[in-house]
Structure formats: C-alpha cells, structure tokens
Amino acid sequence: MSFAFRFTPLFIALSASIPVTAQATDDNAEGFVAGSSLNLHLRNAYFNRDSHNQGARDTREWGQGAVARFESGYTPGIVGFGLDAHAMLGVKLDGGGGHAGTSILPTHVKGDGELGAAPHSFSTAGAALKLKALDTEFKAGDLFLTNPVIAGGETRMLPQTFRGISLINTSVEGLLLEGGKVSFTKPYNQSGHRRIDTYYGSLDERGKSKHLSWAGAAWSGTPNITTSVYAAELKDIWNQYYADFDYTYVVNEQVSLNPGAHFYHTQDTGRALLGSIDNNTYSLHLTLNAGAHTVTAAYQRVNGDTPFDYINLGDSVYLDNSRMYSDFNAPNERSWKLQYGYDFAGLDLPGLSASLSYSRGKADLTKAAQGNSHYDYYRADGKDAQHWERDLDIKYVFQEGDLKDLSVLVRYATHRGGQGYASIDGNSNNDEMRVIVDYPLNVF
Known about the structure:
This protein is mainly β. It contains two helices and 22 strands. The protein is 5% helix and 50% strand. A hairpin with a 7-residue loop joins β9 (175-186) and β10.
C-alpha cells in the first residue's frame, strides 16, 4: 500500500466529524449545470535563446496555445457528483529545424540524432470525474496539480497535467488537507501521456517511476502567516519532504517586512532507480515592501552530493533562487539573490510592473555524484565552480475595455558559467528572451 493511501483515513475522518449534514446540500445546491463554468485561456509564446557556447546553435520557436476548461457543478444531495473536462491545442507559428528545441513545441529527433522542425500542431483532451461530500472533494482522471512536491509546468505555451486521483478537504477554515496518487503525466509540449520521471533522471530510461503519491497540509488561518508541510513518494526513486514558513510584519500602511523559508529533504527509496540520494536543500528570503517598491534578498543552499532534483518538466521547485534559466541547485551549491521590483501604479500606470534580479552561485563539485552514475555529469575538478544569472521581467495587464485581463510579459535572462561550470553544463552561456501574451476568457 503506497503511503498516500495511508493518509486517506485522515481526510475521511475529518470530513465525517463535521455534523452539519445540511452544509453538503447547500454546497451542491446550484446543481450540475447551474454551477458549471467554461473558461478559455489563450497563450502566445515566443522563446529565443542566443547561445554563446562553442559548437552550440541558437534556438527560436513561436507558438499559439489554447486551453478550454469546463468545470461542472455538483448534483444535489449529501454526496454530489460532477465532471471536469479540458481540451488543449498548440499551433506552431515559427520554429524550423535549424532553430528547434526551446521546449514550447514538441521535439522531433531525426534519424541522424539531430532535432528537426516541430509538427505544425499538437493537441490533447482529458476529463476527471469528481464527487463532493461536506468539505471533501475527490477527483479521478486528468488533473491540474499545484503543490510543492508535484506541480504541473505552467511556464510554457500549454500546461502540464497528471493522470490519477486526488483528495482535498477544507473542513477547518484556513486549513487545506490534500493527498493523491498519479501514474502518468502529459508534458506541456506533447500530446500523449508517459510515465513520471525526474528532471535529471530523464537522461536515463531506468529513471521512470510507476507512480507518485503525496499528502500535505497548508495553513493560512493565522493573520500574516502561511505555512505548509508535504510528503511525496516517487516509487523506487525517492521520498521527498517539504516544509515552508512565511510571515508578513506590517510596519505601517506603506511598509512591511516578509521573511520566509523553504526546505526540502530527498532520500532514495525502494529499488533506488537513480542510485543513492541524501539531499537537504533550503532557501531563506527577506523582502521589504515600501509603497510601490519591493526589495528581496535570498540565500539558498544545497547540502548533498547530488543535485536537488524534481519532477521533470514541472514547477515543483519552491525555492527562492529558482530563476528563468537556472535553479541554482547543483550538488553542494550555495547561492544568493538580490531582486528589485516596482509597481508602476505608484506613477498612475496601474497594471504595469517590472523586476530586476541578480543571482550568483558557487558549488563544490569534487564529491559530486560519487558512487551514483546517474548524476556523474556533474563531476568536475573545480572546487569553486561558479555561475551567475541576471533577469529582467516587464509585465502589463490591461485594466479595462475589451482587452481587460490580457497580459503581456517580456522576460530577458543572461546566464554565464564561471570556472568549472562549463564542464558540467554545456549550455551555460546564454542570453534568452521570452515574450508571453495571456488572454483569459470566461465564456460562462
């Protein structure tokens, strides 16, 4: 029995302890049709990576994505039934064989091993059955998941989904309990499903897992404090545990301080398909908000001879120094970040915001991946392998009119590898620009 199902009685017992049966009838009173909604999300994405590495080529792709999501209400009664369904379409606007490989479009490997042009379009569809009793919701099918141990990738043209089951309980105000188990994933740049693997384990076919199980709790019921704890088992690869704490201290109406911390522990389990893993990774941040200005300082540390690894193509890297190009997660890496943000509402330009950050990391790779061939590409002679990244984000969200809620995001990153880093990351020296236009539409 996987560990996620050992947590299931907790959710059931908590739901059953709520004596107000009428609450379920009220929650489901809108009905299957009256409580339904249909949303359409259009995303236009352009990625351009200018490589400064010897022998590497530049990559450039442009595409238009569309995601339609239908969510029904629940049938009346103590136990309500419903259905969620979605359909996705990605269309290539530009991306010839000589410039393919930015990750927003499907990759096509030719017979000679070179990347060919992506197909002109790709699509997928899925659905999940759901039921709700009191404040507990159960889903089975294709899921959109977002938590620190399994978060579908949302930074490309289309989102990532997972196939399995999930359970969420919100009986206690301010407390979210959740758990689940998934066996397949639909990556953001593919049409079909595949087994779950990790970012680094994807280099080895043996690194695919039969399923991932998770359980967690998130608390937001105390003013100015949020905290959560999660645990996940990627079968025969790892057990991963996560905890965070975030606090906002309000000085006055204009000034506040926000300290916080994130912590992951990853340990190999079962058949250890990716070898021995014993990794502790954490980050600390302190943010000063002063009117329209935001200044953040962050420190991050990886303690372990393997990198901090996570679900392939996903966003489950809840660390402060995870940037556009690098996550600063190499074995034994220490990194810091300084970031400045400005909300132009302070200049009577609501909807316009910008941020600029600089991150720098140093790693001791002399012990990296010793006895673990799955991560041996991290081995290097340098004790002080270094790299840095500079990121600029400018975003505008239309505030009114026919284009209300349409947003335009321009992101530019410069990443450079220092002594020793070129030997562990062959694509370390890059300049990358991304332009992402999002247009969410509420159909009904």
